[in-house]
């Protein structure tokens, strides 16, 4: 079991590295492909578009494929997308390669979360899922800085080569250590789509889009905020982002046990503390150490709510949790786009570099409202079910939502 979770975490590490390294290599990519930096920035959007489309589409296509085989197919597509990114000769082909690399992102996380939850006892399911997400947070500390440095020193194509190699290592680990998990009778695209129609799943996805929109409204502009207002040098921002990653890792580590103990209270507390931290950053951004402590705490709270949102969707999707779990990552990317747009809107309007913190806090409060609304609607009804055992058609458990 630990080796299977490690293999899934390596997949998440590769995904986090390829997703965010592109942002740090935009000048080099633009120069290599003969385009402007803003035009090269569209490659980030291409990857995000792949995530949004690929999560529901690929999980739907693979709805009857056993989970292990589907993980291997998706990991192979991830390797192909990043290898294609490394050799793309023109901007158009590079755009297509980044879209291809993004397609399996959400499906890998969704299927991986379901597989991880079934590797352990039901009362440890959230802990197992959080261990998979740990690969994503560690990528922000190690993978992204290393990939960026590699691309700057040897050429940006080598960064994507390295990610492709990580994907191959993950593929080998999945093949060796993840056990076979049959789909069972209640599988297929109709069951997955029926689960997506659950109103609690819809509210959960809306909570992810709005609540995480607050997180990304600040994360997208963190570097210019720190350089313009805190006075941190450009050369030090990489270390600050790594500190942000440390906070995310700490939040992920505590999210699993707390979610296993009380799912909805963990979600409520995480979003509320995120909103409070974003408001606090508005007042501490002008002082170096208070700003850094606040930034670390924001990273921790952002990651703290990732696991309960994921588990809430799996709980309410009942016997067909894969598409709901995968669509959560489509929601994260929509949150990224919406948060960055709203944060940029207030900066352009002349409200100042600190303004995105208040926008982020408002979005977090709105996300909390959605989460509480979902909890109130769920109260008094039949407890939701999630299959966390190795037998996907029986032994449903009733997790502690309260």
From TrEMBL:
<feature type="transmembrane region" description="Helical">
    <location>
        <begin position="157"/>
        <end position="180"/>
    </location>
</feature>
<feature type="domain" description="Major facilitator superfamily (MFS) profile">
    <location>
        <begin position="2"/>
        <end position="379"/>
    </location>
</feature>
<protein>
    <submittedName>
        <fullName>MFS transporter</fullName>
    </submittedName>
</protein>
<dbReference type="GO" id="GO:0005886">
    <property type="term" value="C:plasma membrane"/>
</dbReference>
<feature type="transmembrane region" description="Helical">
    <location>
        <begin position="334"/>
        <end position="353"/>
    </location>
</feature>
<feature type="transmembrane region" description="Helical">
    <location>
        <begin position="42"/>
        <end position="63"/>
    </location>
</feature>
<feature type="transmembrane region" description="Helical">
    <location>
        <begin position="102"/>
        <end position="120"/>
    </location>
</feature>
<feature type="transmembrane region" description="Helical">
    <location>
        <begin position="359"/>
        <end position="377"/>
    </location>
</feature>
<dbReference type="GO" id="GO:0022857">
    <property type="term" value="F:transmembrane transporter activity"/>
</dbReference>
<keyword id="KW-1003">Cell membrane</keyword>
<feature type="transmembrane region" description="Helical">
    <location>
        <begin position="291"/>
        <end position="313"/>
    </location>
</feature>
<keyword id="KW-1133">Transmembrane helix</keyword>
<feature type="transmembrane region" description="Helical">
    <location>
        <begin position="235"/>
        <end position="255"/>
    </location>
</feature>
<feature type="transmembrane region" description="Helical">
    <location>
        <begin position="70"/>
        <end position="96"/>
    </location>
</feature>
<dbReference type="InterPro" id="IPR036259">
    <property type="entry name" value="MFS_trans_sf"/>
</dbReference>
<dbReference type="InterPro" id="IPR020846">
    <property type="entry name" value="MFS_dom"/>
</dbReference>
<feature type="region of interest" description="Disordered">
    <location>
        <begin position="382"/>
        <end position="402"/>
    </location>
</feature>
<keyword id="KW-0472">Membrane</keyword>
<dbReference type="InterPro" id="IPR011701">
    <property type="entry name" value="MFS"/>
</dbReference>
<dbReference type="InterPro" id="IPR050189">
    <property type="entry name" value="MFS_Efflux_Transporters"/>
</dbReference>
<dbReference type="Pfam" id="PF07690">
    <property type="entry name" value="MFS_1"/>
</dbReference>
<feature type="transmembrane region" description="Helical">
    <location>
        <begin position="201"/>
        <end position="223"/>
    </location>
</feature>
<feature type="transmembrane region" description="Helical">
    <location>
        <begin position="132"/>
        <end position="151"/>
    </location>
</feature>
<keyword id="KW-0812">Transmembrane</keyword>
<feature type="transmembrane region" description="Helical">
    <location>
        <begin position="267"/>
        <end position="285"/>
    </location>
</feature>
């Amino acid at each position: 079991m630990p080796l299977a979770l490690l293999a899934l975490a390596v997949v998440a590490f590769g995904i986090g590295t390829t997703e965010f390294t592109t942002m740090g290599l935009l000048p080099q990519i633009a120069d290599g492909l003969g385009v402007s930096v803003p035009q090269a920035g569209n490659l980030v959007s291409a990857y995000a578009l792949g995530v949004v489309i690929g999560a529901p589409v690929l999980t739907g296509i693979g709805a009857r494929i056993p989970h292990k085989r589907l993980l291997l197919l998706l990991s192979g597509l991830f390797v192909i997308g990043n290898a294609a990114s490394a050799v793309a000769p023109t901007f158009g082909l590079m755009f297509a390669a980044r879209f291809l690399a993004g397609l399996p992102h959400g499906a890998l996380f969704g299927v991986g979360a379901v597989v991880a939850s079934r590797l352990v006892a039901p009362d440890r399911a959230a802990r197992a899922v959080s261990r998979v997400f740990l690969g994503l947070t560690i990528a922000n500390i190690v993978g992204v800085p290393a990939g960026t440095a590699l691309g700057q020193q040897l050429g940006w194509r080598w960064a994507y080569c390295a990610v492709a190699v990580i994907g191959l290592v993950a593929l080998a680990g999945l093949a060796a250590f993840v056990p076979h998990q049959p789909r069972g009778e209640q599988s297929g695209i109709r069951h997955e789509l029926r689960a997506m129609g659950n109103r609690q799943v819809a509210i959960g996805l809306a909570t992810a889009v709005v609540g995480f929109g607050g997180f990304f409204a600040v994360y997208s502009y963190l570097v210019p905020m720190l350089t313009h207002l805190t006075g941190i040098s450009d050369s030090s921002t990489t270390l600050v982002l790594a500190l942000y990653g440390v906070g995310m890792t700490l939040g992920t580590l505590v999210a699993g046990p707390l979610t296993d103990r009380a799912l909805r209270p963990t979600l409520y507390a995480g979003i509320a503390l995120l909103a409070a931290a974003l408001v606090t950053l508005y007042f501490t951004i002008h002082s170096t150490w208070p700003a850094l402590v606040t930034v670390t705490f924001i990273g921790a709270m952002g990651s703290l709510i990732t696991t309960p949102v994921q588990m809430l969707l799996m709980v309410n999707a009942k016997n067909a949790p894969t598409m709901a779990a995968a669509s959560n990552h489509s929601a994260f990317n929509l949150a990224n786009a919406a948060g960055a747009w709203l944060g940029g809107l207030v900066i352009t309007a002349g409200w100042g570099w600190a303004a995105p913190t208040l926008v982020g806090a408002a979005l977090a409060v709105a996300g909390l409202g959605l989460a509480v609304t979902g909890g109130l609607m769920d109260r008094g009804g039949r407890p939701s079910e999630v299959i966390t055992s190795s037998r996907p058609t029986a032994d449903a458990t009733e997790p502690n939502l309260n």
